[in-house]
Amino acid sequence: MLDTTKPPAETLLEVNNIEVIYNHVILVLKGVSLSVPKGGITALLGGNGAGKTTTLKAISNLLQSERGEVTKGKIEYRGNAIERLSPEALVKRGVVQVMEGRHCFEHLSIEENLMTGAYTRKDGASNIKDDLEMVYNYFPRLRERRKSQAGFTSGGEQQMCAIGRALMSRPEMILLDEPSMGLAPQLVEEIFTIVKDLNEREGVSFLLAEQNTNAALRYAHHGYILESGRVVMEGPADELRENPDVKEFYLGVSEEGRKSFRDVRSYRRRKRWLS
């Protein structure tokens, strides 16, 4: 009898039991572990201040500008430690972060912003031009506004520009921080649909930090929920969507309002340790 079991997906990113401290005294992340498979969309969920952005910045090595540092644990990409690599070196390896709040170069045009994403590439103008056309195919609105100064475009257009700029580096993985922040529901759906298309058609893997749990779990394959700097629950996205605690605390199903997982007696947090 033939074995039809699907082989496990290759792990791209492995975060193992990391702690992050700011200003040498403030412990923000407390033993966070997660993994992102090749070709997957992994959601990092939780409320404001849960530690989502800090986790992404720990991976992309952007903590030093905020006097933060990883003091324990390991971060590996394709089995290689990346804690000491510069953000530019990570981009060259295929890992790029789209920051919370979009952070476009306001004085540059949309197209000039997109082209800044290709500054590390050495594969020729023709390939870069082809990728610019690919970005415009995914984001037709950017084609329409290509000559417009980015600072005078809408929040949704700036978010599209930020994702498009990341795509211009030809990433294998995008760390996407709060893409729905400040956007109307219709635009949120549009952004998430494009993320799904990029994942399925271009093979881009995503680690997505998001407060909008409902939207994120509809498009992600796997999810981790953070509270107070710890992973308190994880699992396949469809299982998390049906979990009664997630429904009550994050999806607005309960009439009692949002609580903390720490208030649930039946909840047992998984512990992960360095091997």
Task: Provide an overview of this structure.
The chain is α/β, with parallel strands linked by helices and 275 residues long. 34% of the residues lie in helices and 25% in strands. The chain is built from 10 helices and 10 strands. The protein has a 6-stranded mixed beta sheet, sandwiched between helices. Helix 3 runs parallel beside helix 6. The longest helix has 18 residues.
Secondary structure: helix percent? 25-40%
Order of helices and strands: EEEHEEHEHHHHEHEHEEHH
* Number of helices in the DSSP assignment: 10
Strand content: 25-35%
Tell me the layout of helices and strands.
Elements: E1 11-22, E2 26-37, E3 41-45, H1 52-60, E4 68-77, E5 80-81, H2 87-93, E6 95-98, H3 110-116, H4 125-138, H5 140-144, H6 155-167, E7 173-177, H7 185-202, E8 205-210, H8 213-219, E9 222-227, E10 230-236, H9 237-242, H10 244-250
Parallel strand pairs: 3-8, 3-9, 6-7, 7-8
Antiparallel strand pairs: 1-2, 1-4, 4-5, 9-10
Brief descriptors of the model:
4-stranded antiparallel sheet, 10 strands, globular, disordered N terminus, disordered C terminus
Give a quick rundown of the structure.
The chain is of the alpha/beta class. The chain is 34% helix and 25% strand. Strand 4 and strand 5 form a beta hairpin.
